[in-house]
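agent> call fold_tool(seq_1)
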Amino acid sequence: MKTKKILIFTFFLFCFTFMAEAQRGVRIGYIDMEYILESVPEYKEASIQLEGKVQRWKQDIEKKQKEIDQMKLNLANERVLLTKELIDEREEEIKIKEDEMLQYQQDRFGPNGDLMIQRRQLVQPIQDQVFNIVQEIAENKKYDFIFDKSADVVMLFAAKRNDISDLVLRSIERAGRRVQAANKKEEREIERREALTAEEDGAITEREKAIQEKQEEREKLVEAKKTEREEMMAQRQKERDSIRAAKKAEFEERRQRLIEEREQRRDSIMNSRQNRNNTPEGRNEEEEGGDGQ
């Protein structure tokens, strides 16, 4: 309730100030902190890591709950066989386990738990950086008010031209590039970009974006040609393999045919000899041959 009163007061104060300063032209801007956070790679990576921890914590809680449920089930099944002292002892063990689980849940997901602390640690450095950048932009661009669109202040309408979120993001990116600058040339280029106005920097960014898009299109074209060439080579290899396989099959078929023909001739000769030996003339020749020996 107190927070709502403060917000209402702030809103009316803003309206009053806006009316009082209307004659000299009040400059108002806003940022979208959620959009800025989601666009910062370090925040996204850390958020993924934190989400992994959250899932492990949830699994630990589920495991503890299943253990407690099993203890309760065992007690219900064995209650008639246990003495009052043993029942009280089992119930006390269950109570201790439940308290441990609730404490673990509070330590991880409570208002002052690990999740809230690590989220604050994750967001705070970026928020501080955004605050300093907003202060600098407000002074340089002569803004009278800059609001956070994602905060509790209700913004019923906000023209896109007053959104300076991308301007803040570019300042964060430039700060990151300064840290990562490998040599003096890169530092001078960063300083040159920082000296530009937002419109000039935006125009350069658009040109760089167009160049990057053309480069990506060329890379895609090269990749497509490479893929097409690989497919053609694979098709040719497939055709060569098919021809080779057909020739091999033809050779095997001819070889098998020659073997069969040779075996047929051999069988024919053997049959012819056997038939000749079975005739009277053949036997006489065989006997005469034997007498001669």
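agent> call fold_tool(seq_2)
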Amino acid sequence: MSKITAFGEVMMRLEAPRYATLAQSSTLNYSFSGTGVNVASALTRYGHSGRVASVLPDNPLGDAAVGYLRRLGVDTRYIARGGRYIGSYFLEHGFGARPSRVTYTDRWGSSFNTADFPDELLAGAAADSDAVHFCGITLAMNDRVRDAMKRFARFAKDAGKTIIFDCNYRPSLWGEGGYELARPHYREMLAFADIVFMNERDAIHILEMPTGKKDRMAQLQELIPQAAEQYGLRTVAGTHRSINADGTHELRGYLHKAGQFSFAKPLVFAVHDRVGAGDAYASGIIHGELQGADAAHTVSFASAAAMLAHTVEGDTPLATEREVLEAMREGISDVRR
């Protein structure tokens, strides 16, 4: 199996219980997450060695985060310690017409976002990995983090490693004029990348790719091959999601490779916890790509992994490879005894 290192912030998730709002609740449950944590943990459950390259405060809060990651099976050798704060977010679960809500705090002053990332750390992590993973959420932080991200990608590229980039554009993180601010940084990262997670909206708004088509699927099928050719991308993947009147979600995964699209069967399911499901899908694609699996199998596996991630509490995907394969074969089932 492969060694995958994800670069990104480890965050504290503070969750109001059940469907309570922050105004109602006097208690919060906490855990630790982040895109890198989620991807590394999921890939570890599939038999790979998942690592996180990050910085955590050198205090009991940082100790708790490191301990939590180790319990997930994540290798923490490339987590440096320093600074005073950990980035965090408050989660309120939606119900019915009320959507879930995430409120960030301490992001800009966190240990990760104020750290110096020495070349020795980044080059060492790149040399010791088969693949490295980057996310657009991290790219949105500040110039210090963006510089480290690009240096890490360059070290990995020069060493012949697989570069994975999840566009994951968040308007709230880039602020006013976000697309213009983000565009040059996304183009730089795409120039490094081999495996990319993006959709037609990324192509239209971030990459300024024109289309006369109105339907999302038609836009996807027109623009993704163009983006893959322009940036030399080996694989491009993502999902289309819709929410039904009864509150269930419908998800359809896609994968573009070697000039061809593969689409998973649409999956319809109830949602327990929405946060982190995209990371579960990405991890399924990465797993298939690193194994050299057939594209149709990979996209179906990733879609089933995303579906299962909606059924457990917390950001971090917990399904094993066997459980995902069973979900592919059986769909939704009753109690297994």
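agent> summarizing second result for user.
Residues 333-337 have pLDDT under 50 and may be disordered. The longest strand covers residues 235-243.
agent> awaiting next instruction.
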